[in-house]
Design a protein that fits this description.
The complex is a heterodimer of chains A (about 230) and B (about 220). Chain A is of the alpha/beta class. Chain A is about 45% helix and about 25% strand.
């Protein structure tokens, strides 16, 4: 029975993913699964295919071989439109990739309107809600170039969250940030993890990811010890 | 007749030509824009076949002189396929088709300058390629293209005088007619030149205004 519930718990399953660029085999049959509410962190030096793996999961890069399953539905070779699955997998990029011609608010609401077909007012409310969740509501009318790196990354997290994803994919979310700005982004991510969000994080900075994970680990440890 | 008198008498006639010139420029700019944008999108995001077709188009229309194209269309292509196109229409079509080739490359450059991130982010949110191009890529690419695109106005304005060769009644054609009657080339052609310069100035002011109006905050000259 436990195995069955565990099976049901699995949100994302990755099976035997292969990807090569020319003669370089970047992914050599990667398999893992992520359960609901779980945060998985992949650490490794640059160029080891971590970002490629994330992009394979939401099919921004098409893997050569292997399957991706989301909620038991196959994403790869699916009859369903890939755009349907991408909404359910929020992605945060190393370089934020905010839409430069739109305010923070418009950045968050545009996909709600264009993809989910929400009414303008409803989309605006939802977008404001997500912006306050990452503490960026007072910057709603700012353009991306008027934000610091940390602020921009928080907006990009809000943008992904607004689609109500089942899993969040973080591709080196703090690697492009000044050291003093990393904290605010990690804080948002920790909040998400505590709130039960399923997360997949890729990073090449073991120190930072350790700090972050140790933070959680320590808390558990502290409770046990005292 | 004195020089000033000649200018004074022929000015209304020449200014009517300026209107014809402006119409040619506006219409061919518009045709070039309506074709140049899809061509650019096709060359960046289209299938390999689409990309080849666009490249071929650009190669042909950038490679042929205006005068050759005008003669080819006015005396060759249009009559042979049974289209009874006026000199004015031919001028608009030829200048427009040629401008489309140039404009497509201006827009392609600005699309490429956005980098892949904008498209990746849009797709990661579940937008289709078409949605992403329409709501994310083009609004930015068009703004970025504006300074380079502004070149098309003076280029078309000056090129439009070539349509003299097929008898479009624009400024130069009219100036020439006046000179052949009055034998006063200096004042007339000088007036003709001044009209061109003023048209150029007006257009550039307008484009400059548009550039400022559509500027994305935080881009451009650093003023916030």
């Amino acid at each position: 029975m436990t195995t069955l519930t565990q099976q049901e718990d699995v949100i994302l399953r990755v099976e035997n993913i292969h990807k090569s660029y020319g003669n370089v085999e970047v992914l050599k049959g990667v398999s893992f699964s992520v359960r609901k509410g779980e945060t998985k962190v992949f650490i490794g030096p640059s160029g080891t295919g971590k970002s490629t793996l994330l992009r394979c999961i939401n099919q921004l890069t098409i893997p050569d071989k292997g399957q991706i399953w989301l909620h038991g539905e196959e994403v790869t070779h699916s009859k369903k439109n890939i755009n349907f699955f991408r909404q359910k997998m929020g992605m945060v990029f190393q370089n934020f990739y905010l839409f430069d011609h739109l305010t923070a608010l418009r950045n968050v609401e545009i996909a709600l309107i264009k993809v989910k077909g929400m009414k303008k007012d409803a989309a605006r409310d939802k977008a404001m809600e997500e912006l306050s969740r990452v503490g960026m509501d007072s910057f709603a009318q700012h353009y991306p170039s008027q934000l610091s790196g940390g602020q921009a990354q928080r907006v990009s997290i809000a943008r992904a969250l607004a689609m109500d994803p089942d899993v969040m994919l973080f591709d080196e979310p703090t690697s492009a940030l000044d050291p003093e700005l990393i904290g605010e982004v990690l804080e948002v991510m920790k909040d998400l993890a505590r709130g039960g969000m399923t997360m997949l994080v890729v990073t090449h900075e073991p120190m930072k990811s350790c700090l972050w994970r140790r933070g959680q680990f320590w808390k558990a440890g502290v409770r046990k010890n005292y | 007749m004195g020089s000033l008198e000649v200018i004074f008498i022929s000015l209304p006639y020449l200014l009517q030509g300026a209107l014809v010139t402006l119409r040619i420029v506006a219409l061919s700019l518009g045709l070039g824009l309506c074709m140049g944008l899809p061509l650019a999108v096709g060359q960046v995001y289209g299938s390999p076949l689409t990309q080849k077709i666009v490249k071929f188009y650009v190669w042909i229309f950038r490679g042929l002189p205006n005068l050759v194209l005008l003669f080819l269309f006015f005396f060759g292509i249009f009559p042979s396929i049974g289209i009874d196109a006026s000199a004015f229409t031919t001028a608009v079509v030829v200048l427009g088709l040629r401008s489309a080739a140039y404009q497509s490359q201006i827009f392609r450059g600005s699309i490429l300058s956005l980098g892949e991130g904008q498209m990746l982010a849009a797709r990661s949110l579940g937008m289709s390629k078409g949605q992403a191009i329409k709501s994310i890529i083009l609004p930015q690419a068009i703004r970025l293209a504006l300074p380079g695109w502004s070149n098309e106005y003076p280029i078309l304005l000056t090129d439009s005088s070539v349509t003299y060769a097929i008898g479009v009644l624009e400024i130069l054609t009219r100036a020439n007619l006046v000179v052949s009657r009055t034998y006063q080339p200096m004042p007339i052609f000088l007036t003709c030149a001044i009209i061109f310069i003023l048209l150029n100035y007006g257009g550039m002011r307008l484009l400059h205004y548009a550039e400022g109006k559509f500027r994305i905050p935080g881009f451009g000259n650093g003023e916030r």
